[in-house]
Write a structure and sequence with these properties.
By secondary structure, the chain is an alpha+beta fold. Helix content is 33%, strand content 19%.
Length: 120
């Protein structure tokens, strides 16, 4: 039985402000109903993800819930995401109120629309 890597190590995350700014400087954009996905080639053999939710979207509980669910959705399907991208998920109004199936489906629909290989 093959085993899949369901972890979400630090190497698969955007951790520093400059990493987020690099993605936002010249991003590709994919729009969802309640989320926005920015992406940019990273030159690595894996994709990394960061999540942003501002106070305008919800209070601390709603923002943290949104980020926790996005991390979980990404973690479960990380092996199916095309490698070589830095991704930033931005919450829009209504995103923290989404149910788990809605959030996971919307995120996955956006990730499926990512280009296969980054432009050089």
């Amino acid at each position: 039985m093959p085993t899949a890597d369901f972890g979400f190590p630090k190497t698969a995350r955007l951790l520093k402000r400059w990493q987020y700014l690099a993605v936002q400087s010249r991003p590709g954009r994919l729009h969802g109903r309640r989320m926005l996905l920015l992406y940019r080639p990273n030159g690595l053999d894996l994709s990394r993800m960061g999540i942003t939710a501002t106070r305008r979207v919800a209070g601390a509980v709603g923002r943290n819930r949104f980020k926790r669910l996005v991390r979980e959705a990404f973690r479960l399907r990380r092996s199916q995401v095309p490698p070589g991208w830095d991704l930033v998920v931005i919450a829009r109004n209504g995103a923290p109120a989404m149910s788990w199936p809605q959030l996971s489906q919307e995120l996955w629909e956006m990730l499926e629309r990512l280009p296969e290989a980054p432009a050089a």
